[in-house]
Design goal:
By secondary structure, the chain is mainly beta. The chain is built from one helix and ten strands.
């Protein structure tokens, strides 16, 4: 991503095609990012997708029941996070979800 928006909405369709994946490091080190909405059409989230997005305080992935793959470190370095909702990730096993983010002060919802 190249831009200055702090609230990002990823569209379900782009140029008439469904958005099904978010690439590696798509928003890496985007310090100003405060919120992001991801459509349910997404099935794959890349490595370090939101790494080092320190302005992000919470993320709700509960609507993403179609996700089957999440890359390592997808939230690494997001030190402002206090809440992560992964409850909709039914197709990603609990071990995988646990291995993606470790920060004791963050509330993980399954």
């Amino acid at each position: 991503y190249i831009g200055i928006d702090i609230d990002i909405i990823i569209p379900a369709k782009y140029d008439g095609l469904y958005v099904t994946s978010i690439g590696d490091s798509a928003f890496y080190n985007f310090i100003g990012l405060t919120s992001i909405e991801i459509p349910n059409s997404v099935t794959s989230i890349g490595v370090s997708f939101l790494s080092s997005c320190r302005g992000l305080t919470s993320i709700d992935l509960s609507p993403l029941s179609s996700v089957t793959s999440i890359g390592n470190n997808f939230l690494n370095g997001c030190t402002g996070l206090t809440s992560i909702d992964l409850s909709g990730l039914n197709n990603v096993n609990r071990k995988t979800k646990n291995s993606r983010y470790y920060q004791k002060k963050t509330k993980l919802l399954y």
